[in-house]
Design a protein that fits this description.
The chain has about 130 residues and is mainly α. The protein has helices at about 5-15, 20-30, 35-45, 50-65, 70, 80-95, 110-120. Helix 1 (about 5-15) packs antiparallel against helix 7 (about 110-120).
Amino acid sequence: MSTGWTSALRVAAGLWLHEVRPDDLTRLRQAPRLGDALALSLDAFGGDVDRLAAEHQRLLGFAVPPFESVFVDPSAMMMAPATARVAALYREAGWTEPTDTRAAAPDHLGVELLALAEFVEAGKDE
């Protein structure tokens, strides 16, 4: 996988893990592989970071739970066996979640995207 993809994974992870900041508009426009559709979406906000941040929170903070276990575990609960499987994968790969992610569980989509980017960069594609 190219560095363009890992850069895009890192940008996507950041959007799930942190609130929108003013420099995000520039980073998103410059991120390879995110495509023209994303640029058009950003332009719809006219550079208004407050509007973008509010929409970001509405979509990614409230509307869609960002935890794998909610979608793949039969209980549809956080901290279910799916969460433990993800944590075990991280341990087996020797990866530790950065302390600044503020994610409630290791199966948070932003953490998974960040881990994927770092696995690929380290040559752990499998």
